[in-house]
From TrEMBL:
Pfam families on file: Ribul_P_3_epim
Organism: Candidatus Azambacteria bacterium GW2011_GWB1_42_17
Name of the molecule in the record: Ribulose-phosphate 3-epimerase
Molecular functions per Gene Ontology: metal ion binding; racemase and epimerase activity, acting on carbohydrates and derivatives
GO terms of biological process kind: carbohydrate metabolic process
Length: 224
């Protein structure tokens, strides 16, 4: 069943601090949370793996994990040094980048998430071949294909993502496939038909004047 997850990412503006910005975005989503299965995605960037940096403390992030089913999308290097802190916040799912960790670290992170009964997934940047997933496909719950270059919202979908989704769905029918970035009302059906299950949508929902109507528009297309 297709699932929409609103993605909360800090904009490259300095209108407010990062926590207040994400909290404001969450408040816009909150009235519609039940219709979304209670899920949100919180994007975390470190200023190294991508140029943008999220500045939130653990106590601030706990505000979200206590209020919703949180999927952390961790765009960070050296995750082995901080994974215990992310697990300790109690998210429902952790997705991290295959490009940011070596094989031993990936194995260790997956095992830690499993022991904590947290779903775990690997994200791939647009330039990363799907073949790099091969050692891990039987160990993870979700594959996230980036439809844009990570770190900034509002980008257009890179069309290669559709092909990658289709090929992985053909070869691994049971795995969850998530697409993050560039998802719009006019391409979400194509992504679903290619084999995507989960759609992380940031500006396509939160930049719209009527958040509730934007969610309804996506859901109506997916119901076709």
């Amino acid at each position: 069943m297709a699932q929409i997850i609103p993605a909360l990412i800090v904009a490259d503006t300095y209108l407010y601090n990062d926590f207040e910005e994400l909290k404001d975005k969450f408040e816009k989503i909150k009235p519609f949370l039940a219709d979304l299965g209670g899920w949100i995605q919180v994007d975390i960037t470190d200023g190294e793996f991508v140029t943008s940096k999220t500045n939130l403390g653990l106590e601030e992030l706990a505000y979200f994990t206590k209020s919703a089913n949180v999927e952390f999308h961790l765009m960070v290097l050296r995750l082995r040094d901080s994974i215990d802190r992310w697990i300790g916040l109690g998210p429902k799912r952790i997705i991290f980048h295959i490009e940011a960790s070596g094989p031993e670290d990936i194995k260790n992170i997956i095992e830690k998430c499993r022991r904590a009964q947290i779903e775990v997934g690997l994200a791939l940047n647009p330039e990363t071949p799907t073949s790099s997933l091969k050692p891990w496909l039987d160990e993870i719950d979700v594959v996230m294909f980036m439809g844009v270059y990570p770190g900034h919202g509002g980008q257009d979908l890179i069309s290669d993502a559709v092909t990658k989704i289709r090929l992985l769905r053909y070869s691994h029918s049971g795995i969850k496939i998530e697409i993050d970035g560039g998802v719009k009302v006019d391409n979400i059906l194509q992504l679903k038909e290619a084999g995507a299950d989960i759609f992380a949508i940031g500006s396509g929902i939160l930049a719209m004047p009527d958040v509730g109507q934007a969610i309804a528009d996506f859901k109506n297309v997916l119901s076709k």
